[in-house]
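Much of what follows relies on a compact textual record of a protein's fold. Think of the row as the fold of the chain written in a discrete alphabet. An example makes this concrete, so a full record is given next.


***
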Amino acid sequence: MAQLKISVQERSQVGGNRPRRLRSQGFIPAVLYGGGEETMPLALELSRLKKETGMLHENQIVALEIAGDGGSRTRSAIVKDTQFDHLSGAFLHIDFQQISLDEKLTATVAIESIGDPIGVTRDGGILEHILREIEVHCLPADLPDSIEVDVSALEIGDTIHVRDIGITAGIEILTEPEISIFTIAAPITEEEAEALETAAEAPTEAEVIGEEGEAERKRKRKREKWKRPNNYPLDIKSGSNRSGGINELRVIVGLGNPGRRYRKTRHNLGFRVLDRLAETGGAGWKKKRLFEAWTARCNGLILVKPATYVNLSGRAVRAVVDYYRLSGRDLVAVVDDVNLPAGMIRIRSGGGAGGHHGLESIIRTLGTRDFTRIRIGVGGGELGDLTAHVLSRPGKSEDALYEQAAAEAAEAIKTIAAEGTEAAMNIFNQKKVTTEEEVAD
């Protein structure tokens, strides 16, 4: 991947309305983190950016030529996150992560199909694109913009898995090899479509009395107990909040692993944020077998902590979303992120999984990436054994960072509910990261 040169300015003032003011002046707010250096707020001149590079995209390798009070300097970086206005398409914010060109990095790469499947053109099947990105480990120069997969030979019932991808030497695929990427589904015939319509219009048969009938009645009674009450403040059909706020979201899911051994680990930061939100809102947790999750209702929001392990979180999320007849746009996921410095918060709407297996599970089960995520940095992206890092408990000073980050993330959720995602990004994405030394002081 070629390295592009980008001219940026260091900025000292952050937070408040400054990001909006910068954008009105023709600049894009940005931040550079990682590399063992302090997080650096930056500003990119939009007209100069277009002239120098055209349009930036995630995973792009760049050389940042930074102008500031301390003189000019150059840093190699990767575009880690880009945020856009959904209506105008304009940049809102860019995250750069500092890298070393001679050290391997971990990144997610988009998967694209090439060719027309024979099962579609000849047999009328449907090409289903199940997994849209994979996680790879390689040198920055070897990182591809995307991976193309030839699907032209696929017939109905055929599937391409991660293990089937042919990839350049020097690139290691970290995504589980048995996960499906593409498959060709058989078309529904006219007879099958008519049968489905007839079944839908037919009256329901009388309930069968006996063991199976009694079991079904018990399941129905359990579901009735968990119906949304009449005074619930969110209007499912209109998406509005009858109490007057924006409330673009309805479900907040915090990711983590169940069990005492995982409590207070870095991977359970999502649980910690929701516990704080429930505690301050006076809400209690209840285990719901219907959802495979603990749930709580807090100030009009449905809080969800999946009872599965992180990499299976999508099951609980899908169950809740389906039950309340919602979509990904009604969801906010709170997760840890090894690529962000410890305690840093980043909010964005849409995007990839960033190598987080819990987000991968949600994207896969919902079939969409169109949901808001709040990422809390836990560091360690440069370490070899990331699993050991995220599943271990931090020291006292580092844990104090996460307590502060959990409190800020809980406030960010309230801001999203009241003012929208963009407002929360403008406030919380600009905040300076507190260091362990500052917490100790």
Remarks:
- Residues 105-185 form a domain with the RNA Polymerase Alpha Subunit; Chain A, domain 2 fold (CATH 2.170.120.20).
